What does this fold into?
Amino acid sequence: MFRDKRMWTVAVMAVSIASLLFLSCAQTKVYTEEELGLRQETLYDESSAMPVHGEPIMKEPGASAKFERSFENSPPLIPHDITGMLPIAQTENLCMGCHMPEEAGGTGATPIPKSHLTDLDTGKDLDGKLAGSRYNCMSCHVIQTELTPTVKNVFKGGFRDEKGHYRSNLIDTLNEGVKAE
Ligand code: HEC
Ligand code: HEC
It folds into this structure.
């Protein structure tokens, strides 16, 4: 009796393992490396892969025109040539030389806004000093490049007032809808 029961258990286990193996084999689809990416090209060759590298803006600061913002308070694109201005180093940041509010008047550059001169973690006004987190301008501001053909994009940015298309007011609107105790 005992012996029969044990054999029965072994048989049931064997059938279950066999069917599990069968099921997992049936469900496993093997993807080739070419099928893994969205671009459906081999991942080992860049020669025919998009994106293409566009032409960066070469106009000198002061000779170019601002780009419209993508959406309210988005980081504006850099509309001028930045050749020779990079890299931004610990001891040298040429961007600040034109864009810090005390310099901007003389150079015609848009002054760095108040949001960059505030510690946004504590809300502390840094009294005209740049917040450390804003030092590397290039981590948020990028230069505009011209692509041919342009990539289709149906994104439509929202703006609550006309000025927002070309200027920021983040520091005034940041706490909108927030009730501080
Ligand atoms: C020689 C002065 C000068 C230097 C250096 C400079 N800029 Fe500018 N920047 C300008 C001027 C002037 C404008 C206004 C538009 C124009 O005429 O090109 C401007 C516009 C901009 C704008 C667009 C502002 C807006 O509201 O749309 C951004 C962003 C910007 N610069 C970022 C930078 C960054 C980042 C660097 C450093 C890599 C830099 N700039 C270096 C003079 C300068
Ligand atoms: C952490 C991201 C970040 C960094 C770093 C940063 N910016 Fe900005 N910047 C923004 C955003 C977002 C805006 C738009 C909202 C705002 O005003 O804060 C902006 C706005 C601006 C404007 C437009 C101001 C206006 O009144 O319209 C200028 C000019 C500018 N930044 C220059 C700079 C320069 C120069 C540096 C480097 C010294 C820098 N930013 C670093 C995110 C950044």
